[in-house]
Write a structure and sequence with these properties.
The chain has helices spanning 5-8, 32-42, 57-68, 82-88, 103-112, 127-139, 154-164, 184-187, 196-199, 202-205, 207-218, 251-255, 267-272, 277-280, 420-430, 443-462, and strands spanning 21-26, 47-53, 75-77, 93-96, 116-120, 144-147, 171-181, 222-230, 298-305, 310-319, 322-330, 333-342, 393-400, 406-408, 441-442, 466-467. By secondary structure, the protein is an alpha/beta fold. The longest helix is centred in the C-terminal third of the chain and has 20 residues, at 443-462.
Length: 475
């Protein structure tokens, strides 16, 4: 078995020797915190935040207050002023972390202006948006980077190394099961993600991470997709809906509701959302058992790859524990990765803490957290002490034919996603380093991952297999 040293090593970055680049952020919701904190705290010599772009003035003001503590004063613009912002503020790089359905317009506008783009996954939500982005990227000299932080997680990098080394031979099939628990999974059903027109559903918004991992592990291109799934647990008719009337919004309602969400006790969330509701009417804490939710919480997908491998994929957004299992079957053996990010959720505990806090850029939770963080993988140390038969942690096991099973060491680091978030941000702000695992993703990677999610949505509608090229996409 080959060496795994490069799997845990950070990409190497030569000194830049340049003045800070001028950055703007498109979309100042919670996702922007990771980038804003990185610019202000970790890379002030490389990144100068000069502008925010968002329809909600209150959210922009929240981040401006944060920036002023670091001596910065970014300008404020609305989305319809994006072109003017890029020109007036002489923006070098646009970071796009607005709602998914707005990505295509923002990305294409920046690329046409010759501005580099760092785009949160997914690139966009539909085939038309992907075709527009592909054309803009093809004809622009600017660089488009898609941020897939799961590539940088040491456990996923270790599996990439095992496959790249040929330890299991030619990959013939992959089974991938992803489990979101009733804290993290539920959160997608209380915000804008619950509307497929806004997010593309979990097949696009969430599973884009997972489809990208498999594309990257295999270094292959998805060609055919067949999917089954539906809204089975959440929604007004979901199997998980508790009997009786549902509570109204607010702290009192959330206190005794395991599916409730209280933002009032968290300064970051209160400033971004609760105190910003009057500006645009957006509610961050809606009931997961409301009417009108139209995304799936249960998915089963088959994907065929150009090189001959096949993947079976399952997503459950209502599991009692959170984590994932991957099995890679090859001509010389099998690799198995199991990750438990949260072993259980205690009964009666609602959620009031998200993944990052304004004053905790490394993902460290505050000293007193009485309720579970929404995303345990992004908030290390937030999961309760494991009891029972399941414990948090990662385990990668490789077994070749006619040999005993051997565990491959996985060295995780401080910070979100086993230290992967920090490695990603270094690549974003320092530029792509020397990395034999090719963790930094370009627009072709973003296209290939979201193309699977778009094909999943078409297959769900039609009940038929879908060829990716039939969508007019060529990842």
């Amino acid at each position: 078995m080959g060496s795994l040293s490069s799997a845990s090593a950070a990409p190497t970055h030569p000194p830049t020797g340049r003045a800070p680049r001028r950055y703007a952020v498109h979309g100042t919701g919670h996702r922007a915190a990771m980038y804003v904190n990185a610019m202000l705290d970790d890379f002030p010599d490389l990144a100068e935040p000069v502008a925010w772009c968002d329809p909600n003035e209150r959210r922009m003001a929240h981040y401006t207050a944060r920036a002023r503590r670091a001596g910065k004063a970014p300008a404020h613009y609305r989305p319809e002023q994006l072109e003017a912002m890029l020109r007036e503020q002489r923006v070098d790089v646009l970071i796009v972390c607005s709602p998914d359905h707005t990505h295509a317009d923002a990305v294409c506008t920046a690329l046409r202006a010759g501005v580099d783009v760092v785009c949160e996954k997914p690139l966009t939500t539909d085939a038309e948006g992907l075709r527009r982005i592909e054309e803009a990227a093809r004809t622009s000299d600017a660089r488009l980077t898609v941020t897939f932080n799961y590539r940088y997680s040491p456990r996923n990098a270790a599996l990439k190394q095992v496959v790249a080394d040929g330890t299991v031979g030619t990959v013939l099939s992959v089974h991938f099961e992803w489990l979101l628990d009733t804290v993290h999974g539920a959160d997608y059903f209380r915000r804008w993600h619950r509307e497929k027109d806004s997010s593309g559903g979990l097949a696009v918004h969430k599973a884009t991470h997972h489809f990208d991992l498999v594309n990257w592990w295999l270094d292959d291109v998805p060609e055919t997709v067949h999917a089954l799934g539906g809204l089975r647990f959440y929604g007004d008719r979901g199997a998980g809906r508790p009997p009786g009337p549902r509570p109204c919004l607010g702290r009192d309602a959330a206190a005794d509701d395991p599916y409730g969400f209280d933002m009032s006790g968290d300064d970051h969330l209160r400033g971004l959302y609760l105190e910003a509701e009057a500006a645009d009417g957006y509610l961050r804490d809606r009931d997961v058992f409301d009417e009108g939710i139209d995304i799936e919480d249960t998915l089963n997908v088959l994907v065929g790859y150009r090189g001959g491998a096949a993947m079976s994929y399952a997503l459950t957004a209502h599991s009692p524990w959170e984590g994932y299992r991957v099995s890679v079957n090859g001509s010389r053996g099998r690799a198995e990765l199991e990750v438990v990010e949260r072993a259980h959720v205690a009964s009666g505990t609602a959620s009031d803490v998200l993944a990052w806090h304004a004053d905790d850029p490394d993902g460290t939770p505050p000293a007193a957290v009485s309720r579970p963080a929404v995303d345990p993988s992004a908030t290390p140390g937030s999961a309760p002490a494991a009891t029972g038969a399941r414990a948090e942690g990662s385990r990668l096991v490789v077994q070749r034919h006619w040999d005993v099973a051997r565990e491959v060491p996985v060295v995780e680091h401080h910070g979100g996603h086993g230290g992967g978030d920090g490695l990603l941000l270094a690549d974003v702000f320092r530029g792509p380093g020397a990395d034999p695992l090719r963790r930094q993703a370009g627009y072709r990677d973003g296209l290939g991952s979201v193309a699977v999610g778009i094909a999943v949505n078409r297959s769900l509608r039609t009940g038929q297999p879908v060829r990716v090229t039939d969508l007019g996409l060529h990842p």
